[in-house]
Amino acid sequence: MANWTLEQLSAIREGGCDLLVAAAAGAGKTAVLVERIIRKIIDEDNPIDIDNMLIVTFTNAAASEMRERIGEALGKELEKKPESQKLQRQMLLLNKASITTIHSFCMDVVKNNFHMLDLDPDFRIADETESVLLKLEAIEDLFEEKYEEDDKDFVYLLDRYGGNKDDKKLQDMVLDIFEFVQSSPWPDEWLERMTQTYDTQNEWDFSQTPWAKIIMVHAKIEIEGALDQLLKAEAIAFRNIGYGKCAAQLADDIDTAKLLLYASGGSWDKLYKAYSSINFARQQGPDKTADKTDYETLKALRKEAKERITGLGDGLFNCSSEDIKGDLDTLHPIIVSLCSLVSSLSKMYLERKKEKGIIDFNDLEHFCLHILTQRDETGKVMPSPAALSTRDRFKEILVDEYQDSNLVQEAILSVISKRDEGNPNMFMVGDVKQSIYRFRQAKPELFLDKYKRYSNIEGSKERKIKLFKNFRSRKEVLDGVNFLFRQLMSLYLGEIHYDEEEFLNPGALYPDDGIEKDKDYHAIEFHIIDLKKDDARKEEQEQEEEESLETENIEDLDSMQAEARLIGERILNLMGLAGENPQPFKIYDKNLNGYRNLEYKDIVILLRTVKNWSDVFMQELETMGIPAFADTGSGFFKRSEVQIVMALLQIIDNPMQDIPLISVLKSPIGGFSSEELMDIRLEDKEVSFYEALKKISSKGDDLGNKAERFLIRLDNWRDKALHMPTDELIWYLLRDTGYFSFVGAMPQGHQRQANLKILFERAKQYEETSFKGLFNFINFINKMKQSSGDMGNAKILGENDDV
Asked: Which of 260, 321, 408, 665 pairs as cysteine with 365 (C-beta 3.0–4.6 A)?
């Protein structure tokens, strides 16, 4: 029997309500979720079969783990009651239980109700490559149609946002909006609402627009902050003799701030007029005989408060509602045209998918919602017969990682719940502080709304339970996190007020094997790197005659290198490989039930972004002899072996491209030296490099013969490309050129070969789509590189694969 906390037990037992469980990091939410399911199954009074629960997880891996853990828990119950037919039946039902991602659930609904859609029953899910190419084709065809129609609104939109050289910027804008609106349950209605916000007809008040509301809330917070600084400055003036003029001036400033604060709760024009009348006088100083120790602090506080207030006036409240109305009137037709393009793209893209008998993941959600809802005569959304049938099947709906749900998923789950029947049956668990998928249109506001509305009182139809005891981390770590989050997170920034009620509380117990005698052994460390050069120190260093690793100044490195090197040095210290008194760091291993020396694989480096940073970190760590692994897609494209093979594919498709051709010739595949490339270029500077290569190949000298041999090989590869799938072509090239074996003999050869295998596998996936051909594959890869998309789990490894 697990030692459950009171809060965990409440989350396990509570029923007959919509229950929101706010489970902080390390709070044991998965264990609670599994225990709740098991107790529902074995309940003597009101048991629920496992296949009568809908258990929604965030990933397929999480679904598999959940199914496995439920199976293990059922197995333990069976060991206690081996004769129980109920438990035996649940083990049989487990395989068909709805433990799934939201997309898998939607797939089941669509497959079982495809007759309600204009959809081929033999449909399949489009590969990511395929959907990207279809969207690119659709938007290019859409723009071609608009050009032919000579649509004036489209031309005006193109002039404003299309860019100087082509229409790519506008295409990207349309694609971005299209992707964004897919998170809305009804995208066309969302687009229509957006166009209406720019319509200033009838009784229009800018103060009621979404922009004004956000700006005025921001202004109120900034003014409150400035007022607080002015009050602090005034307190300084009051406690110092001879600061009378400063106090009088600050009193006027405070009145001004209060006037603005009052106006911020009214209309836009009221605040605009208040800003138009403010005038901060020149700073007044203390009397000559006064102690000026505190004056600089007072002066700095007033200056910052003044800049915060005047900055708002100059940047935001510099025009009236009437002025803004004129701008919106100008923008309205542009927005209408833009939204029309997005809607047209959606229809055209959908038709392309229907022609090929495919759908994407967004379609799954929207088709599922279409099946589960219907409209009454007033236009109100109602559950369809399919929704009512699904509702009858599921006695309880359990949602993991609820903070990362979007509006479409919320609509789907709401319509199949029993909420509107007065029998709420949703169990939602998550932590809004761990919401990291807003860029994928996740709506943590859904979690926050329930978190604010739901009651703590047992028996409520809408109940919330907080699990803030952490069983994963040490007290030192949690204290540091609580201290930091308390300073940073508020309702305005972070959308939650991080106070004692939100604190993470230590629940894990770590045995004392003499490791914790030093109170600072597990303390959080904060390192500051100052990259600014000190002139005196610089002059002293310039006089030094020898340079070594020990005397290298970290200030001469850029910020990324400096951080990487500092982290590398800290890792070596922790491993007991550096420092004044080298001793390996000890960590508790629950599998050993004791402490052991730290290993490289126990260490993780978290970066805000891996783009650009990971390459620098990998290089620095490798130089210091530290094995490491970085999982990054953008770094994959920068690997030289991948770039060379892609250049080879480009010239096989079209040899008239100078840069890819020179890259291949200079590589081990071509084997040309820089001097030979210069001679080829000088042969004829007016033609392409390929044509110059052909000219020099007819000379019959050593360079000419070398060029001729390469051209013969290139012609052979181009012939192969005409009838060979892209994946087979890539593998043939790697073997025919010997390049795969060559990179294997280079430093980190196993890693380089792994990168080439990933390129091959991606091409294989591409060939399984409805798109074919080398040109389309190259085009897709180029699009992925432009958007920094991830093409696969490219490994960047050190010497130890376990790291």
From this structure: 408
- How far apart (Å, rounded) are the C-alpha atoms in residues 647 and 663? 7
- Tell the burial category of 651 from Cβ atoms under 10 Å away from its Cβ (0-12, 13-18, 19+): buried
Tell me the sheet residues that pair with 797: 629
Closest CA to 8 of 467, 378, 691: 467
Backbone angles phi, psi at 766, to 5 degrees: -60, -40
- Contact call for residues 555 and 541 (beta carbons, < 8 A): no
The DSSP output letter for 402 is G
One DSSP character per residue, 53-91 reads EEEEESSHHHHHHHHHHHHHHHHHHHHH-TT-HHHHHHH
Angle between the N-to-C axes of helices 60-80 and 85-93, in degrees from 0 to 180, rounded to the nearest 10: 160
Cβ-based neighbour number of residue 189 at 10 Å: 11
Residue 779 and residue 133 in contact, taking contact as beta carbons nearer than 8 Å: yes
Q: Is 420 helix (H, G, I), strand (E, B) or coil?
A: helix
CA distance 91 to 89: 5
* Residue 365 near residue 110, CB atoms below 8 Å: no
Residue with tokens 């509702």: 391
CA–CA dist 104, 110 (Å, integer): 10
For residues 700 and 709, give the distance between their C-alpha atoms in angstroms, rounded to a whole number.
Answer: 11
DSSP string, 550-594: TT--GGGS-HHHHHHHHHHHHHHHHTTSSSSS--PPEEEETTTTE
How many whole angstroms separate alpha carbon 396 and alpha carbon 192? 36
Distance CA 50, CA 293 (A): 73
CA dist 39 and 592 (Å) reads: 31
Q: Under the phi-then-psi rule, with left for phi > 0, alpha for psi from -120 to 50, and beta for the rest, what region is 14?
A: beta
**Three-class SS of residue 125?**
strand
Q: Which amino acid is at 473?
A: S
What tens digit of pLDDT does each residue of 111-148 get? 999 888 888 888 888 877 788 888 988 999 999 999 99
Residue 373 host element (H or E) = strand 373-375
Q: What is the DSSP pairing of strand 629-631 with strand 795-797?
A: antiparallel
Task: Please report where in the chains the tokens 């893209």 appear, as a residue.
Answer: 349
Contacts 24+ apart (CB under 8 A), 625-628: 626/568, 626/571, 626/572, 626/600, 626/798, 627/600, 627/797, 627/798, 627/799, 627/800, 627/803, 628/600, 628/796, 628/797, 628/798, 628/803
Per-residue pLDDT tens over the stretch 668-712: 999 999 999 999 989 888 899 999 999 998 888 889 999 999 999
Which H or E run includes 169?
helix 168-181
Comparing CA positions, the residue from 362, 359, 387 lying closest to residue 373 is 387
Pairwise CA distance, residues 324 & 306, whole Å: 26
Q: What is the 3-state secondary structure (H, E, C) of 620-640?
A: HHHHCCCCCEEECHHHHHHCH
Q: Is the pTM of this model over 0.85?
A: no
What are residue 374's DSSP bridge partners? 382
Residues (pLDDT < 70) of the chain are 1-2, 513-519, 533-557, 631-635, 783-803
AA letter at 246: C
